[in-house]
């Protein structure tokens, strides 16, 4: 499987088919050039939303700066992070502990961290699984605008078709379909799912 710059790839298939495994393999190969949004948001529960998002830029600063920012958030960092939390509707949670957030708010915090981190591409494992339809679209638009290239494991086939340029269907650990999303329908992807789950 190869991915070209500028592609927006959606990985679809039933749970356990291999989507997460493929994402982790891609991350191992390109970890220094991509932002990762895992299913488990990987937040430090005792730290605030602000600090969890700031972790996406730790490698840009010295250890001293990072420690100072832990104690007293720097105005420059607040200025960089504020637009991200505003876009994903987390402004009022900025200094709440991550462990006190709902699952959807934790997921959006992890997405903000990836947006701050930046990179050549984003790899995301079910980035809208805890979001309603409106919030899902806000998240996907933010990822599309912020990263030239994306590979997203998606549960919602309709959103996958809408926000991708390419669909990769995975079934039983193999790539069973690899086509441009334009012209595809949900019915074209039905064979990827067991009858009991449809």
SSE order and pairing:
Blueprint: E1 8-12, H1 19-30, E2 34-37, H2 49-54, H3 63-71, H4 75-87, H5 103-117, E3 121-125, H6 133-146, E4 149-153, H7 157-163, E5 166-171, E6 174-180
Parallel strand pairs: 1-4, 1-5, 2-3, 3-4
Antiparallel strand pairs: 5-6
Helix pairs in contact: 4-5
| Spatial strand order of the main sheet | 2-3-4-1-5-6
Structural class determined from secondary elements = alpha/beta
Mind telling me the CATH superfamily name of the largest domain? P-loop containing nucleotide triphosphate hydrolases
In quaternary terms, these chains amount to: single chain
Binned strand content: 15-25%
Number of helices: 7
State the low-pLDDT regions, or none: none
Shape: elongated
Integer-rounded radius of gyration: 17 Å
How are helices and strands ordered from N to C?
EHEHHHHEHEHEE
Q: How much helix, percentage-wise, in residues? A: 25-40%
Question: In brief, what are we looking at here?
Answer:
This protein is α/β, with parallel strands linked by helices and 198 residues long.
Explain how this protein is built:
The chain has helices spanning 19-30, 49-54, 63-71, 75-87, 103-117, 133-146, 157-163, and strands at residues 8-12, 34-37, 121-125, 149-153, 166-171, 174-180. It is an alpha/beta fold. The chain has 2 domains: 1-33 and 120-198, Rossmann fold (3-Layer(aba) Sandwich), CATH 3.40.50; 43-118, no CATH class. It has a 6-stranded mixed beta sheet, with helices on both faces. 34% of the residues are buried. The mean pLDDT is 91.
